[in-house]
Amino acid sequence: MLRLVKAISNKEEEMFMVKLDNKVAIVTGAASGMGREVATRLSTLGAKVAAIDMNNEKGNEVVEEIKAAGREAIFLQANVTDPQEVKNYVEETIAHFGQVDLFYNNAGIVGSSAMTAEISDSQISDTININLKGVLYGLKYVIQAMEKSGGGAIVNTASGAGLEGTPSLIAYGSSKHGVVGATKTAALEYADKNIRINAIAPGSIKTPMIENIDPKQQKEIEVSIPIKRQGTVTEIADLVVYLLGDEASYITGAVIPIDGGYTA
Ligand SMILES: NC(=O)c1ccc[n+]([C@@H]2O[C@H](COP(=O)([O-])OP(=O)(O)OC[C@H]3O[C@@H](n4cnc5c(N)ncnc54)[C@H](O)[C@@H]3O)[C@@H](O)[C@H]2O)c1
Q1: For residue 32, how many other CB atoms are within 10 A of its CB?
Q2: Is the distance from CB of 234 to CB of 191 less than 8 angstroms?
Q3: How far apart are CA 159 and CA 179, in angstroms?
Q4: Sequence-ordered list of residues with C-beta below 8 angstroms from that of 217, at least 6 positions apart, any chain
Q5: Which UniProt keyword terms apply here (predicted)?
Q6: Which CATH number fits the domain 21-107+114-258, given the four candidates 3.40.50.720, 3.30.70.100, 3.40.50.20, 3.40.50.1010?
Q7: 58 CA closest ligand 1 atom index
C-alpha cells in the first residue's frame, strides 16, 4: 500500500515538474539576480542556455557553474540597447545550439530616484534604452527565429511599476508600462503562430538591484508588502519556468504580478 502511494506521488511529482529537455533558452541579464537564477533553473530542467549580459566576468561565472553541473551553456556578451548586438546574440545562439525555443527577456536597470522635473536627460535615455528598447529588440529578433523554427515561449520582465504609478521613478515606470504594452501587443500578433508571450510584474525581490537600498528603506518596503517580506529569485524562477513550459500552453498576453499582494 505504502509503495502504491509512493508510486502515485512520484507520478504526480513528475506530472508537475516542468521538463525542458532539448529546448534552447536565451536569458538576458543572466549575470545577476533573476536572470542568473532563471538561467540556472532552466539548465537544471534540461534546457541548453545562452546567457546574455553586459557583465563579462559574472556572466562567464554563471555559465561555468552550469557547465560544472554537467549542463550545456554559453555566455554571449551583449549590450541589449544595441540592435546589432541583440541580432548577434540570437544568431550566435542558433549557430551554437541550432534553434531558440525559450526566451527570458529580462535585462534591466532601475536607475536612481528623482522627481520628474529633476530627472537627468541621460537617466531618461539610459532607462528607456535598456528596459524598453532592449526588450523590443529582443522580441523582434527572437520572434523572427521562432517563426522560422515553428514556435516558442517568451517571458518579459515588467514590474509592479509597469502596472501602477511609482513616484520618483518616472523613466523606470514608463519603461515598464511599455514592457506591458509590448507583451500584450506581440502576444496578440503571434498567438496563432505558436509563440506565447507573457510578462511577470515583480514587486520587491531580493536581488543585487534592491540590496543596495539602505536598510531603513528596506524595512519600510517590507512593512508595505501584504505578505510582509520581499520575494526571492527562487519564487521568480518558479513562475518564469512555468510560463515558459508547456504546462502554460493556454496562457499568452498575461502580465502576472509576483509581489506578495502589493498590487492587489
Ligand atoms: N529586484 C526587484 O525588486 C525588481 C522588481 C521589479 C522588476 N525588476 C526587474 O527585473 C529585471 C532583473 O532585475 P534584477 O533585480 O535581477 O537586477 P540585477 O541588477 O541583479 O540584474 C540585472 C542584470 O542585467 C544586466 N544588464 C543591465 N543593463 C544591461 C544591458 N544594457 N545589456 C545587457 N545586460 C544588462 C546587468 O549586468 C545585470 O546582470 C530588471 O528588468 C528589473 O527592472 C526587478
Answers
A1: 18
A2: no
A3: 9
A4: none
A5: Oxidoreductase
A6: 3.40.50.720
A7: 39
Angle between helices 56-68 and 33-44 in degrees, nearest 10: 20
- Distance between CA atoms of 9 and 62, rounded to whole angstroms? 33
- For residue 209, the CA-to-ligand 1 centroid distance in Å is 7
The CA 96 to ligand 1 mean position distance, Å, reads 25
SS3 label, residue 226? coil
Contacts with 112 (C-beta within 8 Å, 6 or more apart), sequence order: 123
What average pLDDT score do residues 194-223 get? 91
Residue 93 and residue 36: Cα distance in Å, rounded? 17
Q: What is the rounded average pLDDT of the residues 125-150?
A: 98
Q: How far apart are CA 227 and CA 243, in angstroms?
A: 23
Of all protein residues, the one whose alpha carbon is nearest to atom 34 of ligand 1 is 53
Burial of 106 (0-12, 13-18, 19+ CB in 10 A): buried
Nearest residue to 45 (alpha-carbon basis) of 64, 20, 75? 20
CA–centroid distance, residue 53 to ligand 1 (Å): 10
- The torsion angles phi and psi of 204, rounded to 5 degrees, stand at -85, 115
Pocket of ligand 1 from Cβ distances under 6 Å: 29, 31-35, 53-55, 78-81, 106-110, 130, 134, 157, 159, 202, 204-205, 207-210
Look at residue 3 in the predicted model and tell me its pLDDT.
Answer: 55
